[in-house]
Design goal:
502 residues; alpha+beta; Nucleotidyltransferase, domain 5; 5 domains; four-stranded antiparallel β-sheet; 16 helices; 12 strands; 13% strand; flat
Length: 502
């Protein structure tokens, strides 16, 4: 029997020191258990199936080497207490205090065969989702993640109930979730490598700034006369001979190589971004890590309505004798095009009943197409808003304005800004460079020459250039959504087929 496990991942402690353990709820039939994973070790214990949930009093014959010392419960011996009567192997010194083992674990819990784990998509839980998915492949468990907007829509109470809600949803409505697969894990690893690379870069920049300030201070803040000195040359020599700075440079180079390998291992790079001129692994890492899983932006059409329209179209095609009549027309590039041709043939050959039935079937297919198109446009809009390239109310393009919230992801927008610069350097040699030039021509034709409104210059060459840059990267985001979401659907279908054949 499956257990359904909901996990609300949280950072274990706030800046103020307040405890924020990861919350976990296990639904096993009628039984419901809740746990709190207080630190990273506790999360690792759960992944490995070694999370202690029950203890017994320690016995004299127990050897602590048989237990993980993190799982042993200790009590502090009062200062001055005679410990000669205690078992030496059960004692330890911790922070200047003597402690004696009081309890050892006897029952453990954790990821097991046939478990179904439900988590929220993205955020701080990526690492735990990676570990659970990897272990799940070994033990036969499944890890699912729910897009945050779906979790918010399903939530009826406080966030503290999210762990239980996720477990319940994984049980009754697993279709809302996206499974964590090896492909997903590669994306998570890119995010991890990107974060490490950014931290290394910030550390190197901070060290560089410290060295420069120290040098300038040594030169200027002296009672002696200034010596003949080129500060920039001295600064370069100082950096080249500083062991800490050189070590940070080496670390940054290592992190960049790790990111390069991680990005090139993803199917997003292999099937989409590798062929885009102007995007290298470093820029792709920024974009992939900020977006994470495309699944959280994907919008699917109403499946009930899609199924109803499909059943209706099959019935109408059968009654309209589509299979019998299609031999009278040339086959189209698709079944839909052939259906249209057969309907037109029926109208032209005095077969009004069949023509009416097949016309209704065509309308069913067109409505299905519209539902898919509307869902795709909604998904595109969500990704564009996330990246900060969606036109806001009033036709304004998003930028930082006083009194408004910049609710886009800064790393994604920064990556697109750098990408726009690459497109600008390509002239008309590439698809995106040519698109940029086309937009510049269109915008200049659509808007009057430069004018001043309310003391601000409008539609100058620079203004037109920026408009074209952002319009081009907006189209690139739409392209990325279409390609990535299609790739995600193919991967999901392949995974489901693999499970069925296993």
């Amino acid at each position: 029997m499956n257990r359904f496990i909901g996990i609300r991942h949280r950072l274990k402690k706030t800046k103020e020191g307040e405890a924020r353990p990861t919350q976990l709820c296990v639904i096993d039939g009628e039984n419901i258990e809740t746990y709190e994973l207080e630190d990273d070790n506790a999360e690792l214990d759960w992944v490995r199936g070694r999370f202690p949930i029950a203890w017994r009093d320690i016995a004299p014959e127990d050897n602590l080497k048989d237990f993980n010392l993190r799982h042993v419960k200790w009590r502090t011996v009062k200062k001055g207490t005679d410990t000669s009567g205690l078992i030496a192997g059960h004692l330890r010194e911790e922070d200047g205090k003597t402690q004696v083992a009081s309890k050892v674990p006897i029952t453990f819990d954790g990821l097991q065969r046939a478990d179904v784990v439900g988590m929220s998509l993205g955020g701080s839980g990526d690492r735990l989702a990676f570990a659970l998915s990897k272990q799940g492949e070994r033990v036969g468990a499944t890890v699912l993640r729910l897009p945050p907007f779906e979790l918010k829509r399903e939530r009826r109470g406080e966030k503290d109930e999210d762990a239980k809600l996720l477990a319940e949803l994984a049980n009754r409505n697993p279709g809302l979730f996206h499974e964590v697969t090896p492909t997903t894990r590669r994306i998570i690893w890119v995010r991890e490598c990107q974060a490490l690379r950014i931290d290394a870069m910030k550390g190197r920049i901070a060290c560089e700034q410290r060295l420069r300030q120290a040098l300038v201070g040594q030169v200027l803040c002296t009672e002696q006369d200034f010596a003949e000195l080129d500060i920039e040359r001295a600064f370069n020599a100082l950096k080249a001979n500083d062991r800490i700075y050189m070590a940070l440079m080496e670390e940054e180079a290592i992190r960049l190589k790790e990111l390069d390998r991680a990005v090139k291992d993803t199917q997003v790079w292999q099937h989409i971004l590798e062929d885009v001129s102007g995007i290298g692994p470093a820029l792709a890492g920024r974009l992939i890590s900020s977006i994470g899983g495309i699944e959280r932006f994907m919008v699917e059409p109403d499946q009930a309505r899609m199924d109803s329209l499909y059943e209706e179209s099959v019935r109408l095609e059968l009654e309209g004798k589509f299979l019998e009549l299609k031999k009278y027309v040339a086959a189209g590039e698709s079944t839909f095009q052939t259906l249209q041709r057969v309907a037109s043939w029926c109208r032209a050959n005095q077969r009004p009943k069949e023509a009416a039935l097949l016309a209704r079937a065509v309308a069913c297919h067109e409505e299905r197409s519209k539902l898919r198109r509307d869902a795709r446009n909604k998904g595109r809009g969500k990704l564009k808003s996330f990246c900060g390239v969606a036109v806001q109310e009033g036709g304004k393009f998003p930028r930082r304005r006083a009194g408004s919230v910049a609710n886009w992801h800064p790393d994604a927008r920064q990556a697109l800004f750098l990408l726009a610069d690459q497109f600008n350097r390509q002239s008309n040699r590439t698809r995106w460079g040519a698109m940029l030039l086309d937009y510049k021509i269109k915008f200049r034709a659509a808007h009057p020459p430069e004018k001043t409104t309310e003391g601000k210059s409008r539609y100058s060459d620079g203004h037109i250039h920026k408009m074209a840059l952002w319009r081009t990267v907006t189209k690139f985001v739409e392209f990325l959504y279409d390609q990535w979401s299609d790739l995600a659907r193919k991967q999901k279908l392949a995974t489901e087929r693999a499970k069925m054949s296993a």
